[in-house]
Give the backbone structure.
Amino acid sequence: MTRPVIPVIAVDGPSGVGKGMATRWLASRTGWHRLDSGALYRILALAATHAAVPLDQADAVAALAGGLDIRFVGETEADEAILVDGQDWTHEIRAEETGNLASKIATASVVRDALMQRQRDFRTAPGLIADGRDMGTIVFPDAVLKVFLDASAEARAERRYRQLSKKGASVKLTDLFAEVRARDERDRKRAVAPLAAAPDAVIIDTTQMGVPEVLTEIEALLKSRQLVD
Ligand code: DC
């Protein structure tokens, strides 16, 4: 008897597009697990920095991946904790700078290969919501639903600006816009697993949409694929 395949919903898109919000909502709507693949790249970049491994030495960076004990605790953004070798890295990995370092190491295929199995290990019953750049194209090409969220770089920089300002951070919109553009450029143009919508992905351009509208569209997709009642 063949074992039923554990279903995956892949949500890909550029940085700051709202994948975290959408995948957290999807995980609570379906009761499935969630993979934040970007967090793995962030953790590896930070681990390399802590170990004084130069980020352009891809083999040495990749070699660190197997030895890291990574635990994701909690379900919501508020109670989420990310423990690496028993230490709390929840806040450290979210820094803008860590995102940039992650984007740099993510251009190396040896690094991507080193994280592949770790990502696939998240595929456990009853199902998985996978958040990233190459979930629908490379890591889970057999996903039952592939959503590609997109938005203009201006809209994403503005959303980030509002988020950070609300938290009391002093940031400049022009700096955020430049960072968003630089990260897009690197993530979309890299030779291996570039950020791209899978041919069978449903593309949702959220530039002009609010959160409730995005979730309404995703809910409609879930229903049309009979993934929820
Ligand atoms: O989603 P994020 O901002 O946490 O991801 C940080 C960086 O990691 C992103 O700019 C590129 C890289 N990344 C990747 O290459 N592939 C993924 N599946 C997830 C993230």
Summary: The pocket of 2'-deoxycytidine-5'-monophosphate is lined by residues 15, 37-38, 41-42, 99, 102-103, 106, 132-134, 183, 187 (CB under 6 Å). The chain has a mean pLDDT of 94. The radius of gyration is 17 Å.
